[in-house]
């Protein structure tokens, strides 16, 4: 800092002092700390601290989402053109999927969703930070990226904006902002869309771009998901590798189980997301899938049953279709709304997987259940933690029975007295 | 008999600037000072006035709640200043040292034959009592109580802290005297923990229960060891004392003179020649800091280790309990895109583009920068990885923050003191002040329940 020149760093430092104590300080600091890690030093307790901060943690999650986002650009285009022109006979990634045409269409459709999600959400965060005079916390960085990835591609932008306002204000800010919310804000936004505008969020048209507006015309195309086919006991023409790599219709970013798996491994490796929740959620969904397969094998339901298609679906394939994998990796692991004790995380994750598949099979209106399952478990997470922590408290209480409580009097102190409480 | 304790959860913070095993005599300090902030929760009552001539070992103030508990001068000289803060609270008492030192002498005490009452009153009047600390609440032990056991940790895991195997060498006689005396103050045992490897002067002592400890920090903290050996229950009381203070206790009993001398490790990246110095409690830090030299202008001096010490100016004074003085660079500078670029030169317990996991043995030069701003608790599961006690750290912190007395009790606040939360504070991504939260929780619990 001995350099006399007015560097960019110093200019910002002067500006920071200029804004100190003013209304707009949180807004300025949000930009300032985005460019430069602050010059804050420790004042109490430990004099040194780890390298990580919340921005880095959030950024790690976003990095794990980038491949999914890029894939969604291509897949949006690919699904649209394939629905119109028919799926290619000899599918080749380079010739049919990773094309400029696919990318451009997807980019044009998905980027506005990203921009609206971030723009509206961050605006609300800034407004609340300025009103309440606290720093802009980083929670929305991940939410803003998740939201465009879990909605159908043709979701009108105004609808998304309304939902984001609802989700951020009601889902998060009224509870006190980042770290205080009970429900995952991204899923609150998704749930709001689902219940407020069901025709745009479900059915057999919304999952491929252009399917809705072509309905009723000679050029009509289908936009049905695999789960949709199964729910109608229909058949579909997607191979297992299509499902795994994600060349299937669905919400913008949920289709590629392969990239989600890579993202999940990255999050586990970087220790940002809980491997316990991910593993137990996978186990939970497999168990529920096995139970349904068992019911079918035992012949308890006939092929005519409206649940037959989904119940007879191979149990492990549930993980490849719909939003299950995406939900498990990126949303169930939200540390604020999930269980916070290690044992609680096992229970919480397991129930998410279990209930997701259950809702998926039994939901008559909409064959998908991950977001409802996670929201439900968000509500129960504190209860799970409560009982886990009670276990620790009970151990301490038990110990208390053998406590050596000595009287506060020096003369009697020679004789130890064991008190039973 | 020795029992082994193996700690798995934790984190060793390897820093540059460990002290070499050589000891120099520090230059004599002109002024010595007692910092009252070292005694949390104490209300002092002065016994002498400004300008009075006092001898080494002469009482200068006492505890308002127990007038037998005397605090004595480390050196002889003139009491030149009583520094007061808001509401005339006494902060520091400064003594201008004489050229030749005069001591107050007490009758010698043979700990083997003395009664427990005699030991108690000797420790109180000689000024040794404040070295004994109690849990719960992390205060000076109340002389009217009897602890269920006494715990002493001879295993050092705190970053750069003084190596007891080195600094206690040759002091076995004093240690044994102190142990014999303390043994009469409790019907329970005296638990001493030493490192599994290494040659500790503590291991040959009589009248103790020896435990061999291994594992990363906080395995060396006495709180961790208590939790593994004999955890504190509600209503119970244990005492702790650091081995260096045992030496003063023992020597005072055997010689009758309060000898405030101790061996201090001067460490840290900002120190040119980190090594050991013999000096006295309350000596000016500058008397030995500049003897070793500093290699930067912008540094912070810490009374204690980097995790639990308190900031002191270079012309400040050595604390009452400290055996380590650390100097590390200040981190009051911005870092361009510090939140997303890969980090190789700082410690992290994640792998989010932070690469300290590649070289677990590497020594780091950490600054005092917080590496981020204060945030609400968000990420979970990281504290548990470095917290070996059978306690839920996040839940206990939250109970303290919302001042829920029942929860604080049930979740085990009686078992911890702030230093036990230093490592969770270090790894906290939300940069929450854990030690302060625990301190405030303990104070509240003490006030409400007592």
Structural notes for this entry:
The complex is a heterodimer of chains A (421) and B (450). Chain A has 421 residues and is an all-alpha fold. Chain A has one domain (54-385). Helices cover 59% and strands 0% of the residues of chain A. Chain A contains 17 helices and 1 strand. In chain A, helix 3 (54-85) runs antiparallel to helix 12 (257-269). The relative contact order of chain A is 0.09. Mean pLDDT of chain A is 88; it is low at 410-418. Chain B is built from 11 helices and 21 strands. By secondary structure, chain B is α/β, with parallel strands linked by helices. Chain B folds into 4 domains: 2-12 and 108-255, Rossmann fold; 20-27 and 263-329, Ubiquitin-like (UB roll) (Roll); 31-97, OB fold (Dihydrolipoamide Acetyltransferase, E2P) (Beta Barrel); 370-448, no CATH class. The model of chain B has no long low-confidence stretch (mean pLDDT 92). In chain B, the strands form 4 sheets. In chain B, strands 1-14-13-12-15-10-11 form a 7-stranded mixed beta sheet, with helices on both faces. A 6-stranded mixed beta sheet of chain B has the order 2-17-16-20-18-19, with helices on both faces. A 4-stranded antiparallel beta sheet of chain B has the order 3-9-8-5, with no helix packed on it. In chain B, strand 8 (77-84) and strand 9 form a beta hairpin. Chains A and B meet through helix 1, helix 2, strand 1, helix 3 and helix 17 of A and helix 1, strand 21, helix 10 and helix 11 of B. Strand 1 of chain A pairs antiparallel with strand 21 (335-336) of chain B, so a sheet runs across the interface. Chain B: Its EC number is 7.2.1.1. Chain B: It is an enzyme of class 7 (translocase). Chain B: This is Na(+)-translocating NADH-quinone reductase subunit A. Chain B: Belongs to the NqrA family. Chain B: Residues 5-97 form the NqrA N-terminal barrel-sandwich hybrid domain.
């Amino acid at each position: 800092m001995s350099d006399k020149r007015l560097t960019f760093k110093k200019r910002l430092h002067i500006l920071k002092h200029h804004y100190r104590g003013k209304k707009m300080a949180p807004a300025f600091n949000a930009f300032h700390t985005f460019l430069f890690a602050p010059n804050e030093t420790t004042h109490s307790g430990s004099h040194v601290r780890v390298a990580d901060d919340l921005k880095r943690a959030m950024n790690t999650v976003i990095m794990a989402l980038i491949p999914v986002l890029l894939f969604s650009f291509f897949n949006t285009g690919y699904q649209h053109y394939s629905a119109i022109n028919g799926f290619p006979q000899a599918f080749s990634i380079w010739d049919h999927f990773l094309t400029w045409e696919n990318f451009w269409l997807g980019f044009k459709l998905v980027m506005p969703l990203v921009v609206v999600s971030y723009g509206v959400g961050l605006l609300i965060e800034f407004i609340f930070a300025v009103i309440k005079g606290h720093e802009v916390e980083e929670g929305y960085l991940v939410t803003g990226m998740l939201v465009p990835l879990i909605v159908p591609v043709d979701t009108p932008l105004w609808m998304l904006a309304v939902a984001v306002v609802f989700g951020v204000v009601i889902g998060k800010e009224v509870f006190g902002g980042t770290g205080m919310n009970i429900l995952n804000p991204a899923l609150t936004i998704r749930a709001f869309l689902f219940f407020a505008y069901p025709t745009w969020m479900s059915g057999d048209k919304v999952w491929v771009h252009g399917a809705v507006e072509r309905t009723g015309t000679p050029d009509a195309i289908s936009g049905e998901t695999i789960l949709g086919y199964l729910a109608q006991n229909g058949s579909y023409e997607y191979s297992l590798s299509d499902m795994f790599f994600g060349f299937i219709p669905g919400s913008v970013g949920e289709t590629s189980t392969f990239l989600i798996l890579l993202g999940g491994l990255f999050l586990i490796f970087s220790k940002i997301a809980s491997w316990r929740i991910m593993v137990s959620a996978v186990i939970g969904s497999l168990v529920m899938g096995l139970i349904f397969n068992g019911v079918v094998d035992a012949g308890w339901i006939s092929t005519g049953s409206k649940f037959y298609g989904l119940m007879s679906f191979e149990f492990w394939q549930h993980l490849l279709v719909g939003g299950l994998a995406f939900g498990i990796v990126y949303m169930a692991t939200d540390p604020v709304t999930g269980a916070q004790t290690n044992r609680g995380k096992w229970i919480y994750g397991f129930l998410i997987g279990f209930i997701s598949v259950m809702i998926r099979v039994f939901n008559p209106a909409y064959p998908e259940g991950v977001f409802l399952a996670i929201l439900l478990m968000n509500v129960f997470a504190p209860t799970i933690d409560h009982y886990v922590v009670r276990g620790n408290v009970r151990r301490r209480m038990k110990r208390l029975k053998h406590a050596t409580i000595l009287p506060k009097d020096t003369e009697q102190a020679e004789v130890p007295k064991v008190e039973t409480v | 008999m020795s029992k082994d304790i193996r700690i798995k959860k934790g984190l060793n913070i390897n820093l540059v600037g460990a002290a070499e095993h050589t000891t120099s005599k520090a230059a004599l300090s002109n002024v010595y000072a007692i910092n009252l902030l070292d005694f949390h929760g104490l209300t002092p009552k002065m016994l002498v006035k400004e300008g009075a001539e006092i001898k080494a070992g002469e009482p200068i103030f006492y505890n308002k709640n127990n007038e037998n508990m005397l605090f004595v001068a480390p050196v002889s000289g003139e009491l030149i200043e009583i520094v007061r803060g808001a509401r005339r609270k006494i902060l520091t008492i400064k003594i201008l040292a004489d050229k030749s030192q005069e001591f107050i002498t007490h009758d010698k005490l043979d700990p083997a034959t003395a009664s427990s009452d005699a030991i108690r009153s000797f420790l109180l009047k000689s000024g040794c009592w404040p070295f004994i600390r109690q849990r719960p609440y992390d205060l000076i032990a109340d002389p009217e109580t009897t602890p269920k056991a006494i715990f002493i940790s001879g295993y050092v895991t705190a970053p750069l802290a003084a190596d007891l195997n080195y600094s206690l060498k040759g002091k076995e006689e004093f240690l044994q005297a102190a142990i014999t005396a303390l043994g009469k103050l409790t019907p329970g045992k005296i638990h001493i923990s030493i490192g599994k490897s290494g040659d500790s002067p503590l291991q040959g002592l009589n009248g103790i229960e020896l435990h061999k400890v291994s594992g990363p920090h906080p395995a060396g903290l006495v709180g961790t060891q208590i939790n593994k050996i004999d955890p504190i229950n509600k209503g119970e009381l244990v005492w702790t004392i650091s081995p260096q203070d045992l030496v003063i206790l023992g020597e005072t009993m055997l010689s009758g003179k309060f000898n405030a001398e101790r061996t201090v490790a001067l460490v840290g990246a900002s120190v040119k020649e980190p090594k050991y110095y013999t000096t006295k409690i309350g000596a000016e830090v500058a008397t030995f800091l500049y003897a070793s030299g500093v290699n930067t202008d912008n540094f912070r001096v810490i009374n204690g280790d980097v995790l639990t010490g308190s900031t002191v100016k270079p012309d400040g004074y050595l604390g009452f309990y400290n055996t380590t003085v650390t100097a590390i660079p200040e981190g009051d500078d911005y870092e361009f895109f510090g939140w997303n670029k890969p980090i190789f030169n700082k410690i992290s317990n994640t792998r989010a583009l932070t690469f300290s996991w590649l070289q677990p043995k590497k020594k780091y030069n950490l600054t005092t920068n917080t590496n981020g701003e204060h945030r609400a608790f968000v990420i979970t599961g990281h504290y548990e990885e470095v917290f070996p006690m059978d306690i839920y750290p996040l839940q206990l912190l939250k109970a303290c923050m919302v001042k829920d007395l029942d929860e604080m009790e049930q979740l085990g606040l009686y078992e911890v003191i702030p230093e036990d939360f230093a490592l969770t504070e270090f790894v906290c991504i939300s940069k929450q002040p854990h030690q302060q939260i625990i301190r405030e929780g303990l104070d509240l619990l003490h006030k409400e329940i007592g």
